# Entry
Amino acid sequence: MTRRQLILASLGPKQETLFHFGHENVLGTSLDLTFLARNEADAEQAEAAALAEIDRLRAVLSTWDPTSEASQWLRSKNEPIAVSEDLWAVLSAYDFWRNRSGGLVDPAVAAAGELWVQGRVPSPAERAAAVAQIQQSHWRRNEANRTATRLSTSPQVFASLAKSYVLDRAADAALVTPIQSAMVNLGGDLVVRGDLSQAIDVRDPNEGTAARLNVQDRAVATSGDYRRGYQIDGRHYSHLLDPRTADTATAVRSATVIAPDAVTAGALSTAMAVADVAEGERLARSVPGVEYLLLAANGRRVSSPGWAAFAQAPPVKASDMDLAVNFELARIDDQRYRRPYVAVWIEDADKFPVRTLSFWVQKTRWWPDLKGWYRGDKLRSMAEGTEIAATIASATRAPGKYTVKWDGKDAKGQPVKPGKYAVCIEAAREHGTYQLIRHEMEFNGTPKTVPLSGNVEIASASLEYRQTVR
# Structure
């Protein structure tokens, strides 16, 4: 499937325009292309050139495709084979970075992966055997005639540096066309070339955005322990494996690297996500033109001296926000006026009640008149096995303005995940009317104020999603 969006934003005196193209299932992930071009035809020509280059390189470098040049070469043994310029470049990159990183970057780490996918923690003896297999010499390159000889039968996966190589080449291919600038984003790793300045969010493994960058003529790569990994006996183990130990990485949750090219960024982000913090920093400092951000497992943020030059103001996390629900109980000219029963609560995307913020009631026999809240609470009580109505009930209020707040936590005091939730304000009055205001909104760390239409019982209402004042 292909999604396409044209962003009409004139930039500068030349009147170039940003064109954005999105594709799914490209090398097993998503592909986003942004071009600065004079017209749509030029942008589409750049899109076609980038896609054609990616398809060409997939047929060369994919170790998942048994017909690719790389797969055929990996099935050879002790035979010097003349390889293409692209396969030669990837083999050369792995030789360079395997040596430069002290073994942190190694396609033979696939041997360790074969142990962990068995659903149990490998024994020390098994890991030692895998390390011995990884540390073999797996190929020999002959510079004079550009042949490569496969020396072992150990499994190899070229996905990491091959993907980075594809990024660089796809950007180069796009810039051969009449466009001015290009951004190629493949599964979150990207290259920006030309006059284009690209804003980039660096994902936090725990929640939301860890940093917001603005880069030009740079590549950015992130390796991290996100949702992928191995679940063994109820414990999560990172999918990132150290080729030197065949064990899972534990010191760093995420490593983001800014570098002049995608291969350098990709190699360093992989190495720094596997190494301990100090070792990763030493490696990065040895490579010119590199900046980095490490999110350590102990919660520390470690960045290079030049990182701040690319970083925008730190984004606000959803956990740093709260919601103020403002509403006014209407003044009704009626001698027999009875104060309304009022419930304010939060529902998730499945309309399951997450948290009750207020429950202003009197006689229990009228509680079911708050139909939405009552029905949702019955569902919640059956699911959780607890009754909360009596513990949260408080007296009804006179007409006037009120504010109740939500701190982003559920009824058990646990932070909810960022996403879409509904705010519900319900009022029911004896001998009066029944009214419900329900508004869905994204809770993702972006401040917003939303006015809501009033009704007979709730004269006015508004939502203020804002940074928590501490």
